[in-house]
Every structure is written in structure tokens, then in C-alpha cells.
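Hi R.,

As promised on Friday, here is the backbone we talked about, encoded as C-alpha cells. Could you run it through your design pipeline when you get a chance and send me back a sequence?
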């Protein structure tokens, strides 16, 4: 792992849509956030593909990435990730090849193997009942062939001349092992799959095969973090995240609640227990609390990069959290 002050620090922006705003406002706030974290010295900003989720506005990463890249000049921007089962590999290669041609050296193509939505929505995206994630290695190989030149005699223009940086994303050991075998960088979703983080990273590192892309393993960990001036304020800002995830897992997705709505919600003991389980890996608190939590995570996982996801509806509070985290890690 690099020295703490030198550890590349990045952002996963879920483009939250809260109950007191609109998707358009959330997207504009995402562009403002990209400009701000670039000034702060963050390395990357990724947006995730989600569908049929009213609380997340990033349903089309390539479109949003184009705007984020145009609004910035040094920040790497990309997908965290594109859910490959939803798309024809040729389309993904053309989209990200075009983004890289327009913004050379700044585009990341993070790829996931889940649909990122429910099965009915996945069918609506692909218009096919054949959505077997076991086809992922074949689809990935086809995508990489398009990025490298051509596949089946078809050329992806302008991807061959402008391949983006390709990452595999994962929340279990499957993509970790595949990333290792292919010699690709790997990003693990600790923010929602914390119990698999350390085993997956160990599997990635132990199975890694040097490639033209990498000579040694390169792992990034994504952590859910909410930092505020005090522990109490951070807990208040983070409360909507727990309620939102509870609703999602019970089949009732909606906009991200406000802190006031989360505070007023009549939780049952079972719901409080479920939220505690969902959010137990989240790092929430004032600067000292967050510092201790992040140092513990970094010590256990030894990543080459750290990505922070702060799913807070208030754009000013979200940015302040990123400011505080940057200060915490720069202090060493």
C-alpha cells in the first residue's frame, strides 16, 4: 500500500435523488461535485449504473461521464460500473472508445457482471430472457477484443485507437479471481459486501497473472463514509441511507429520505436490527471517528487506492464530507 498521504483517493458518486429534490438537480449537483473534488485533489470519480431506482439518477453512465469529463480537466472519470449483462459489448466499446477519444487519458471503464436491477428491468434493457451472468467471461472477452481492435471482423470505431482503462468490479470472489487471471485492476465493493472484502482481495492477489496491462496486482476498495464536524451530525446525515437501503431490500425503492424523514420513521426492532446489519461496515462520524475507521480498513485490506461513497442528499453536506476525508488522510 502507498504511504497514507500518497494513497490515491477517489469518489463513487451514486447521484442521490432525495425526496426534496429532482433527478435533474441531482445530476447538476454531480457535475458540481466533480469540479469540487478535482480541486481537492481526488484522483477518480466514478458513477454506477442502476435502473428502476428512484433514489439514484445515474442510469446512463456514458452520458453522465461525458458531462463530468467536459466539466473537469485532470480528474479521471468513469463507470463504477457498467453492468455488462445489460449491454452489447460492441456498444460499450464504441461508447467508451469515444469518451476516451474526446478526453484522452482520463476515462475508466469499470465493468460489473450483475444487471444492477431487478429481472423485469433487466429484460426491458436487453429484450432477452437470456441474462445468464455465467456468460460474463465470454462477453468480457468480446468487449476487450473490440477495445483491442476487432471481433468477428467488426471494428469498434474509435475504440481501437482509444481504449479506456479497464477495471473489473466485484462484491465476491468471482470477479476477483477473474481479474487476477486476466491481469486487470480490481475494485471491491466493500460498501455493500464487507464480509467478502478481505477474502476477495486475497483471492485476487494470489491468482494474479502479470499481463500487458499490469505487472503486479492493483486493488481498490470502495467504502461508504459520512464525515461531519461531529459524530452526532454525521449520524443524522447518514440515517436516510439506512432507511433507503431497508426499503430497497424489502422491494419498496424510493427517493433518498431526508434526515427529518428518517428520524420520524417508526422503526420496528427488526428493522433497526436489519439496518444495523446493512450499515455495520460504514464509516460514520466526526473527523477523529472517521480517521480511526478508515485507518483500520486500510490496515486490514492494504489497497493501492481508496474510493469513498458518500450517499448524502444535501450537496453541501456531501461535499463537506469529502473535504474532511481528504484532510484526514492528508494529515497522515
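Update: got your reply. Pasting your designed sequence below so it's all in one thread:
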Amino acid at each position: 500500500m502507498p504511504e497514507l498521504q500518497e494513497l490515491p483517493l477517489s469518489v463513487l458518486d451514486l447521484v442521490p435523488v432525495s425526496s426534496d429534490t429532482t433527478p435533474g438537480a441531482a445530476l447538476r449537483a454531480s457535475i458540481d461535485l466533480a469540479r469540487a473534488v478535482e480541486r481537492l485533489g481526488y484522483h477518480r470519480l466514478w458513477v454506477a449504473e442502476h435502473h428502476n431506482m428512484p433514489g439514484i439518477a445515474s442510469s446512463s453512465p456514458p452520458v453522465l461521464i461525458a458531462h463530468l469529463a467536459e466539466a473537469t480537466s485532470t480528474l479521471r472519470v468513469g463507470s463504477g460500473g457498467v453492468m455488462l449483462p445489460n449491454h452489447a459489448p460492441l456498444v460499450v466499446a464504441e461508447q467508451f472508445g469515444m469518451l476516451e477519444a474526446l478526453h484522452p487519458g482520463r476515462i475508466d471503464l469499470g465493468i460489473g457482471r450483475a444487471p444492477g436491477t431487478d429481472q423485469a428491468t433487466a429484460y426491458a434493457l436487453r429484450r432477452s430472457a437470456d441474462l445468464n451472468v455465467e456468460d460474463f467471461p465470454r462477453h468480457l472477452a468480446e468487449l476487450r477484443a473490440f477495445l483491442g481492435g476487432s471481433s468477428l471482423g467488426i471494428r469498434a470505431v474509435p475504440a481501437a485507437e482509444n481504449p479506456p482503462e479497464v477495471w473489473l468490479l466485484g462484491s465476491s470472489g468471482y470477479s476477483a479471481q477473474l481479474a487476477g487471471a486476466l491481469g486487470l485492476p480490481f475494485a471491491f465493493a466493500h460498501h455493500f459486501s464487507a464480509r467478502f472484502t478481505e477474502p476477495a482481495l486475497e483471492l485476487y492477489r494470489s491468482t494474479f497473472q502479470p499481463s500487458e496491462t499490469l505487472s503486479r496486482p492493483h486493488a481498490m476498495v470502495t467504502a461508504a463514509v459520512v464525515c461531519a464536524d461531529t459524530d452526532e451530525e454525521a449520524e443524522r446525515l447518514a440515517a436516510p441511507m439506512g432507511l433507503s437501503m431497508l426499503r430497497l431490500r424489502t422491494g419498496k425503492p424510493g427517493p433518498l429520505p431526508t434526515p427529518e424523514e428518517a428520524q420520524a420513521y417508526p422503526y420496528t426492532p427488526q428493522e433497526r436490527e436489519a439496518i444495523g446489519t446493512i450499515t455495520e461496515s460504514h464509516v460514520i462520524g466526526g473527523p477523529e471517528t472517521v480517521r480511526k475507521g478508515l485507518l483500520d480498513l486500510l490496515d486490514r485490506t492494504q489497497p493501492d487506492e481508496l474510493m469513498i461513497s458518500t450517499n448524502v442528499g444535501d450537496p453541501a453536506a456531501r461535499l463537506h464530507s469529502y473535504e474532511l476525508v481528504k484532510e484526514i488522510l492528508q494529515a497522515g
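One thing I noticed while checking it: The chain has twelve helices and eleven strands.

Thanks again,
M.
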